[in-house]
Structure formats: structure tokens, C-alpha cells
Specification:
The complex is a heterodimer.
Chain A lengths: L25 H18 L7 E5 L14 E4 L5 H11 L4 E7 H6 L2 H10 L4 E6 L34 H7 L4 E6 L3 H12 L5 E6 L3 H8 L4 H11 E3 L10 E2 L3 E9 L5 H10 L8
Parallel strand pairs in A: 1-2, 1-3, 3-4, 4-6, 5-6, 7-9
Antiparallel strand pairs in A: 5-9, 8-9
Chain B lengths: L1 E6 H11 L2 E6 L6 H10 L6 E4 L3 H13 L3 E6 L1 H16 L4 E7 L18 H4 L9 E2 L4 H18 L2 E7 H4 L2 E6 L43 E3 L13 H16 L2 H4 L2 E4 L6 E6 L2 H14 L4 E6 L1 E3 L3 H7 L5 E6 L4 H9 L4 E6 L8 H10 L2
Parallel strand pairs in B: 2-3, 2-4, 4-5, 5-7, 6-7, 11-12, 11-14, 14-15
Antiparallel strand pairs in B: 1-8, 6-13, 10-12
Helix pairs in contact in B: 1-2, 1-6, 3-4, 10-13
The chains are: A alpha/beta, B alpha/beta.
Chain lengths: 281, 374
């Protein structure tokens, strides 16, 4: 019998290898996610048939193609409303939204904003490679200021969007930043996020050697990995003010918010009870 | 069956509940908001969900998600909102997601006259989204038809796994009329077909022995794949000409070949007709009155009201109007549906009667224009 990977049981193995470039950080992110999900399933916290993956468009969103769960690869930026609707209709589902920084924070920004405000019962994982990778290297809202992109060839003139601050300001129950350079921490973060009610937002800093790396002179995946790694500052219980997102000063990773306020479904359930009747038609 | 005195909008809301609606997502827009408000009050009593989303884009994407969680799902909007929904409708087409959009037209373009009527969006309702396919469009002209066609819209969407547009307008929306309402069991309510094979053998886009694949949902244990990319029967991305051809022609055929089953019309004096006044929606009311006036003047006129606009039932239309010499297409726009019909009715004279009016174009104006071209 062929040797199989322990996570193969969660994968559509006939779709492997993935479409990701060699050296891409997404494989590490997916591995950490599957290990965290596996632990929650083994513990009985999650049921495999109740895990749903939804992604929009981009390299990260293609993560929905590979795991053997109910999955939706929808349109650019719109994974959150799709996932929230599934959750409302089938509250037993654990809906995981995966997307890149462009998918989640640019075109999908309005949906993220309102999901955060609702404390919607979703796990939103934003893998941030600081660039539009799939389309060939255009400006992202997370691109560090001054860096070259194909649509800002003279250096990004805009300030970076720190999505952690946005998520914390709007009331999500769990807000954390992690990095593919620290896979064990990443797995632990996602493991924890999987058991939260309300909205859990996890930003995962990642490497895109093919596009971002090439732009900044680190085309070799290991070089880019080391460049990101040396900029990561691990902090225990950092404050929001400490959530530095800065290519030159570094990126602080850790749990910025961890609370247990009622999620959207909790308040929605109370609301629905006020509707009288219950007749069948 | 019971009778109620309802507006077109409330008839749509009531019929959607009868059809088994369980999820409504929406964003306020004139002249549709009372559908939303009515359902917000009533639908939770039947175990359904009504959620106001941040915009029409979120609303339609939520409707798609809810449908994939096995709920009958709907949204309602008007021109500006429908324009925002188009990208997601294309997603619903390629993923074969049953859903209903109640599209209550108002005066356009852009903000236009939000509280008044028009039929400017008749082509957009089916041709608006990218990808070159057609979705069924049903067009009521009275509250009763709004009620009946809403039920039909849900049934067609479930049967063919397609988005369906219920195309109303601002006049019908807020005109009261007597509506015969059906109770459960008095009207056919179609449910989508579910897979009959175990999850290991299930292929989400395999139509098995027809054109419409059985549909498993999130949480059913089937590991469904909702795929916006061109896909094979498994739902796997397949950037190949043969896959694209196979998918496109199946998606095309499942709608086109249902044209005869979907097609619905009503007529006046068609059995003694030389001159047909073809119309739809609120303008059809005016065309019917104009027909009677013309007959009083000795013209062998008839009126044909289309209750369904797309897919165009070409053979059926040609046959229906076989003995008619001249066809006038009366509509409240620049002559849009006329463009569809002139291609279908090539062997006789088809005349456009485009009458732009913030309400129903008056019958007298229809009579005047038709008389000039007789």
C-alpha cells in the first residue's frame, strides 16, 4: 500500500499537487489549519461533516479546492456573506472563510466590516502575502509603503491597512496575527479560534516568493522566508497599540483580542423568539 | 383557497411563503422594500430567516449560500440593486444554484425616478450578467399573476437548478387587486432533486440521465463543491475546451429546452385577429384596453400578454401568432423586447410601440400609435 500523509484523509488527494508555486507559504498555512481541525475533530468539538470552507478569488481562496469538506469557491470578495448564510440556516456548521488580503480586506472589505460588527459566528482566516499574487503583483491594501508593485511602479505611496486594528475596533471575539514562519504558533492560534463563538479573525503573514519576493529582491523562497521570519516579533497578549505592521520595524504576532461576548447567532436567536406563531405552511 | 385584497409586492411575499421560502436576504430599495418588511414580520413565524445585509452584493451572495444549505432562498430589488447583483447571478448560473430574485423595475437609468415605473430592464434581467447564458424571467401584470408567477418562479428554479427573475414593476408593486391564495396542498410546490447515491459516488455536476444534476447541500456529508471556475462533473477546475463546451451546452440546453414548459401567456380575441398587440407587465393592461377600443373601431385587433419573457419560446410564439398579419409590441421603454420578437417573427411585420411613461402608458396613446401604422 502506498505511503500516505496523516492529513490525506482530509484532502481530495486526486487534486494534489496544488496550483501554488514552489515555496509559497500557503501549503504551510493549509497544513496548520488541517492539523488544528483534526485536533478539534479528535476531541469531539467539531464534526467533520459540519466543517465548511468558503473562499473568494485568489491563491488563498483556492485553498477551498483541496480539503475534503463541504467547500465553496465563490466570487472575489464575497465569501463572507455566503458563509454567514450557511451558518444561519445550519448553525451546527463550523464555517471557515479563507482568503487573501485582497479578497478579504480590499474588495471584500465591506463584508468583513459588517461581519466584525455583527460578531458573526465565522472563522475568517486572511492569509496576507502583501501583494496580489494570482493576478501578477499589483498593489494590495496591505502592501508596505514604498514597495514596488506593478501598479505602483514608483513605490507604493499609500499607508498600509492594519486589519488587526480594524477587527479589534469593530468587536470581534477573537483577533490574532500569526505567521507561516511560526507553524506551531499558527496551528495553536487556529486551534483556539476554531472553538470560539462569534467572529474569530486570524491574519496569517505569508510568503509569495514568485511575485512579492521577486519584486523586493528575494526570489529564492528560503531567502524570503528568512526575511519575513526576522521581521516577526512574537508577543504574549500584546495590546492593539502594539500590533505593529511595518516592513522595516517588524510585524507583531500574537492574540490581540480574546473575549467571549454573544455572537450574531446568540442575539439572532433571541430576536427570532419574539416572532409569534410558528405555523407550518 | 381564500381571497385577499393585496398589492403586487405583498402578493409576491405571500406566495414566496407558500412556495417554501426559508431565507430572505435584502437591502432596502424603492419600490421593493415592503416585500422585505412584510417577510421580516411574517417569515420567522414559519421558521424562516430574514436578514438585512450591508448591500445587494452581500444579499445575493447570502441567498446563494442559503440555497447551498438547502433553503429556498430569495431576494428582492430594483434596477440599481440588480446591477450590483449581476456578478453573483453569474456565479449562481455556473454553480446551478436555485434562487429567486424579485426584480421590481422603476424608472431609470441610474437613480431615475425611484417611485415610478418603467420597463427599461427587461433585457438586463436576463442578459445583464457575464457569461452569455439566459435565466428564466417571469413577468406578472396584476397582483394575482404576481402571486401565481412567484410560485412558478420557485418551482422553475428548483426544477432546473437556476436563478429565476420575477420581473415586476412599480405600478404592479403598489396596485391592489383581488388575489386567490392557495393553501398548502392546493398548488404544486417543487423540491430540488437530491442525490440517490452515497457520498463516495456523488459527482455534484453530473446530470445523471437528464440535464439537471441532483443537488447535495452543506452539512449533508457529501463534501459538496461549489465551483465558480469552469468545472467537470466532479466540480474540479478544468480549463479545457471540451469541458467548457460540455458545461456551456448543458447549461444552455437545460433552460432553452424548457422554454415550452415555462412559456405562459393570456390573450383576448386571438381567434379573430389580424393585428396583435403584444405586451407584458403593467403596460399589458393598457394594451388590453387599447385592443377593445380598436375593435370598436372595426379593427380585427387582439391582445397577447406574455407572462414569461425568457427563455423565448421561438416555435411556440411563431405558432401562437400564425394567423396574425401585423404584430405591435407595446412596452414602456425604447422598444427592447421588440428586438427579441422581430427575430422570432421574421415572416411578418413586427412594429415597435415604445411608449415612455412614468406610469402605465395611456390606452389612448397606444391606440393613436397603432392606428398610424395600421
Amino acid at each position: 500500500m502506498a505511503v500516505t500523509h496523516p492529513l490525506d484523509r482530509y484532502l481530495r488527494v486526486d487534486r494534489i499537487p496544488t496550483m501554488w508555486c514552489p515555496g509559497c507559504g500557503l501549503g504551510i498555512a493549509l497544513g496548520a489549519m488541517l492539523r488544528a481541525i483534526d485536533r478539534r475533530i479528535e476531541e469531539g468539538v467539531l464534526k467533520r461533516e459540519n466543517v465548511g470552507f468558503v473562499g473568494g478569488i485568489g491563491c488563498t481562496a483556492r485553498m477551498t479546492l483541496y480539503p475534503q469538506f463541504d467547500s465553496a469557491h465563490v466570487i472575489h470578495g464575497r465569501a463572507i456573506p455566503f458563509a454567514l448564510a450557511v451558518k444561519i440556516v445550519k448553525p451546527e456548521m463550523k464555517m471557515i472563510v479563507v482568503g487573501g488580503d485582497g479578497d478579504i480586506a480590499a474588495i471584500g472589505g465591506n463584508h468583513l466590516l459588517h461581519a466584525l460588527k455583527r460578531n458573526a459566528d465565522l472563522l475568517v482566516i486572511m492569509v496576507n502575502n502583501m501583494i496580489y499574487g494570482m493576478t501578477g503583483g499589483q498593489l494590495a491594501p496591505t502592501t508596505p509603503r514604498g514597495l514596488y508593485t506593478t501598479t505602483t511602479p514608483y513605490g507604493n505611496p499609500e499607508k498600509e491597512l492594519n486589519v488587526i486594528k480594524l477587527a479589534a475596533a469593530l468587536g470581534a471575539n477573537y483577533v490574532a496575527r500569526s505567521s507561516i514562519t511560526h507553524p506551531q504558533l499558527l496551528e495553536r492560534t487556529i486551534y483556539k479560534a476554531l472553538a470560539k463563538r462569534g467572529l474569530a479573525f486570524v491574519e496569517v503573514l505569508s510568503t509569495c516568493p514568485e511575485i512579492f519576493g521577486r519584486h523586493i529582491g528575494f526570489r529564492n523562497p528560503v531567502d524570503l522566508y528568512m526575511e519575513l521570519r526576522k521581521r516577526i516579533v512574537v508577543k504574549t497578549n500584546p495590546s492593539i497599540e502594539e500590533s505593529d505592521y511595518d516592513w522595516s520595524r517588524g510585524f507583531v504576532i500574537g492574540e490581540f483580542v480574546d473575549k467571549d461576548e454573544p455572537g450574531f447567532l446568540d442575539t439572532y436567536r433571541e430576536y427570532v423568539l419574539k416572532a409569534v406563531g410558528g405555523a407550518e405552511r | 383557497m381564500r381571497y385577499e385584497y393585496l398589492t403586487g409586492n405583498i402578493a409576491i411575499a405571500e406566495a414566496s411563503i407558500t412556495s417554501g421560502l426559508r431565507f430572505y436576504a435584502g437591502y432596502p430599495i424603492t419600490p421593493t422594500s415592503d416585500i422585505f418588511e412584510y417577510l421580516a414580520r411574517e417569515l420567522p413565524k414559519y421558521g424562516g430567516h430574514v436578514i438585512q445585509f450591508e448591500d445587494e452584493i452581500a444579499s445575493i451572495n447570502a441567498v446563494i449560500g442559503a440555497s447551498w444549505a438547502c433553503s429556498k432562498a430569495m431576494t428582492a430589488t430594483s434596477g440599481p440593486g440588480f446591477s450590483l447583483m449581476l456578478e453573483a447571478l453569474s456565479l449562481a448560473v455556473i454553480t446551478e444554484t436555485p434562487l429567486v430574485v424579485a426584480y421590481v423595475m422603476r424608472t431609470g437609468p441610474s437613480t431615475g425616478v425611484p417611485t415610478r415605473s418603467g420597463q427599461y430592464d427587461v433585457l438586463q434581467s436576463t442578459y445583464g450578467f457575464h457569461g452569455g447564458l439566459v435565466i428564466p424571467v417571469l413577468a406578472p401584470s396584476t397582483p394575482q399573476e404576481a402571486y401565481d408567477l412567484t410560485i412558478k418562479a420557485f418551482n422553475v428554479s428548483e426544477k432546473l437548478r437556476t436563478p429565476v427573475v420575477l420581473l415586476s414593476d412599480a405600478v404592479i408593486a403598489h396596485t391592489y387587486g383581488k388575489v386567490a391564495m392557495r393553501e398548502k396542498g392546493e398548488v404544486e410546490v417543487v423540491e430540488r432533486s437530491k442525490p440517490s447515491v452515497p457520498p463516495s459516488e456523488y459527482r455534484p455536476y453530473d446530470p445523471v440521465d437528464g440535464l439537471v444534476p441532483p443537488m447535495a447541500c452543506f452539512g449533508d456529508g457529501y463534501g459538496v463543491l461549489v465551483e465558480s471556475l469552469t468545472h467537470d462533473e466532479r466540480g474540479y477546475y478544468s480549463p479545457r475546451t471540451d469541458s467548457q463546451r460540455k458545461l456551456m451546452w448543458r447549461l444552455y440546453r437545460k433552460i432553452a429546452e424548457s422554454a415550452g414548459q415555462i412559456f405562459e401567456y393570456s390573450s383576448l380575441y386571438l381567434d379573430s385577429c389580424d393585428v396583435a398587440l403584444v405586451s407584458y407587465g403593467s403596460t399589458a393592461l393598457s394594451a388590453q384596453v387599447a385592443t377593445k377600443v380598436l375593435r370598436e373601431r372595426g379593427v380585427r385587433a387582439c391582445s397577447v400578454k406574455f407572462k414569461t419573457l425568457f427563455p423565448v419560446y421561438e416555435e411556440g410564439l411563431a405558432k401562437l401568432l400564425e394567423g396574425v398579419e401585423k404584430v405591435f409590441v407595446v412596452e414602456n421603454n425604447t422598444g427592447l423586447y421588440y428586438r427579441e420578437l422581430r427575430g422570432v417573427l421574421k415572416d411578418r411585420e413586427v412594429v415597435s410601440v415604445p411608449l415612455i411613461d412614468l406610469d402605465v402608458p395611456p390606452p389612448q396613446e397606444v391606440v393613436e400609435v397603432v392606428s398610424k401604422w395600421l
